[in-house]
Amino acid sequence: xxxxxxxxxxxxxxxxLDGLKKQLNWSRFNGLICGCVSDxxxxxxxLQTCRPDVIISDIKMPHMDGIELxxxxxxxxILSGIPVILLSGYREFEYAKSAxxxxxxxxxxxxxxxxxxxxxxxxxxxxxxxxxxxxxxHLKTEDTDRVVxxxxx
Length: 153
Description:
With 153 residues, the chain is α/β, with parallel strands linked by helices. 45% of the residues lie in helices and 18% in strands.
């Protein structure tokens, strides 16, 4: 049985969590929601029991924002390999740029439209390919490509 690509959703707005759960084409990247939490502190607690393959997080949240979440993940020897994708209504590049020092490579502006959902699906598909290549790096390149193709089918 093929394993799922586990994703943790972090946002203080239930409507955003519900929208991501309902609107993303989860089968496109073999995605599975492994958890939904409402702020970074809850996410850190969740990560003690379950390790997702990717975290999709809002930036602006109470208790612990997405940038602090990304910092704690980046600085943790146990969690540092988990990619973080940030969602935000903030348009200031300097604010988003501060997340880059914590290895956040993707930043999606709210509101999340169908076009942005497709962009997020592309990012998640790319993350799945990267995960498969890392997991199966001991195989020859053509075997790794076969594993990636199977994971995406």
